[in-house]
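Meet today's protein:

…
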Amino acid sequence: MTLQHKGINIHYTDEGQGTAIVFLHGFLENSTMWNAFKPALTKKHRVICIDLLGHGKTDCLGYVHSMQEMADAVKAVLKHLRLRKYYMIGHSMGGYVALAFAENFADALKGLCLMNSTYEADDDERKALRIRANKMVQTNFENIVRMSFANLFSETSRKKYKAEIDEALQEALKTSAQGYVACQEGMLLREDKKELFHALTCKKLLIIGEKDTILNSEKLINETNNTDIKTRILSEGHMSHIENKEEFLQEILHFIE
């Protein structure tokens, strides 16, 4: 399905009935990443999956996609669907978008799950990596995407989940260079949302990959000890939907039920 928003097309899917769950994919992903979970989830729930700006079948909106602009596009879809309350699950960049959403629309959230994601802003090293990648991607897009993707997995996972990773990589390569750069710029600009996340009164869940090389997992765990934020540590890395598929599904079902 497609919605017109600020002169561009926003693509989304809407399946099932019951409590609504909104899924937001990560950088170089799209809404198809959730397909494997739909049969189990749509038995009792309404599942909405949205292609974020510059990803999947959703168009770009300029050359910088701030997390707030992406959150506004998500809100436009949910308003169009006349949804008032829902759970939101965001993977990696999708978690950053979910936090930007929560800043303005917290009352709509029954629960917020940051999956392999963080409320922290980029540190200087991460910002420098994004800037360098954006320069390189203009002349060497495919190689940069392949390298970015490979770095998300351990050597063991690259062998064990080769078919799933190859399929996800083909989806990643469909992202336009403009979409790549605009989202990197948006992530680079985002602010720390620790206080916001801790202050939210809805249910909160952090899903953390024990071997995740992208996030400072230990710091997140320490900061959420003795709070109302539930933390679930899965055995593998940054891509729990591939590397810990069954455990991830069980955690989501438990979270929303």
